[in-house]
Amino acid sequence: MSDVTERIRSEMAAVFGVAAADIPADAAPGRIEKWNSLGHMQLIVALEEAFKIRFGDDDLIRLVSLPEITATVTRKLGGQP
Amino acid sequence: MINPYAIGRSVYMRAPSAADAAGKWHEWLSDPELTQYLADRWWPNTVEAQMAFFQSTSATKDRLVLAVCDKATDTHIGVCSLSAINWVHRYADIAFVVGDPAFRNGAVAVEIMSLLLDVAFNRLNLLNLRSVHLASNPHTPLLERMFGFREAGRMREFFFHRGTYVDAVMTQLSRSDWAARNR
């Protein structure tokens, strides 16, 4: 598991109040209890602060699952998705 | 899709129809959970009132109201608007609601905002958008922060919400700020 994915899981765990190990590989809104409307927005803000990045509109609409979040954050950090 | 005006990843927007007004639209604006943070919704809504509103929107060019639909099913799931459009100064008020509870997952709200900003700045050539929300609303500050809205001011203890008075928070998003964020 990449460092980026681990860090994202860590942020998810903090926002959603779950253990990082309990976040499935295909985690998405609704599949974790607190990944609701407010949780989704809290997660995005947390990711921007944690990784020191700002998502553009095209990025924001892609943040709908753990794999897509990982790919988007990796790309924003300058890596390959 | 039916008569799409703006197309997103999972939702699209189209002109509202009389069928929308006769459907769930009026119920959303009576829903206590959905309307609790809407400053102008404290009276029960009706099909008749919704139909009258729908008919008024087609007769004016200072308010753009769009139905939000799920791409997979064409289900009407919400409504968005650019209101009080001032074509001289080129600003408008922005607002939307995700009416269908099944789609209130945050991701849809983000997609609606993204599409609506594209409509406002790229299609209607507006320069500024403004918004007002209750300080007790936990969603809007986060959503607007994501999209680069700036707080423009507060009217203190202005709105009555659940037994107490809360500030009215006024925010602005300029086209230049939006474009800079999306470069």
Which helices and strands occur, and which strands form pairs?
The complex is a heterodimer of chains A (81) and B (183).
Chain A: H1 3-16, H2 37-51, H3 57-60, H4 66-76
Chain B: E1 4-7, E2 11-14, H1 18-22, H2 25-28, H3 32-35, H4 47-57, E3 64-70, E4 76-86, E5 91-98, H5 107-123, E6 128-134, H6 139-147, E7 150-161, E8 164-174, H7 175-181
Parallel strand pairs in B: 5-6
Antiparallel strand pairs in B: 1-2, 2-3, 3-4, 4-5, 6-8, 7-8
Characteristic key phrases:
heterodimer; A: 81 residues; mainly alpha; Non-ribosomal Peptide Synthetase Peptidyl Carrier Protein, Chain A; 4 helices; 0% strand; globular; B: 183 residues; alpha+beta; Aminopeptidase; 7 helices; 8 strands
What is the compact description of this entry?
The complex is a heterodimer of chains A (81) and B (183). By secondary structure, chain A is mainly alpha-helical.
Task: Detail the poorly predicted runs of chain B.
Answer: none
Secondary-structure arrangement, i.e. CATH architecture of chain B: 3-Layer(aba) Sandwich
- Rg of chain B to the nearest angstrom? 16 Å
Task: Determine the CATH topology of chain B.
Answer: Aminopeptidase
Please tally the β strands of chain B and state the result: 8
Largest sheet of chain B: 8 strands, mixed
* Largest interface summary: A-B, 23 and 23 residues
Kindly name the structural category of chain A: mainly alpha
End-to-end Cα distance of chain B: 30 Å
Domain tally of chain A: 1
The order of strands across the largest sheet of chain B is 1-2-3-4-5-6-8-7
How many DSSP-defined strands of chain A? 0
**CATH domain class name of chain B:** Alpha Beta
Instruction: State the major sheet of chain A.
Output: none
The helix/strand class of chain B is alpha+beta
Which shape of chain B, going by the Cα principal axes? globular
What oligomeric state do the depicted chains represent?
heterodimer
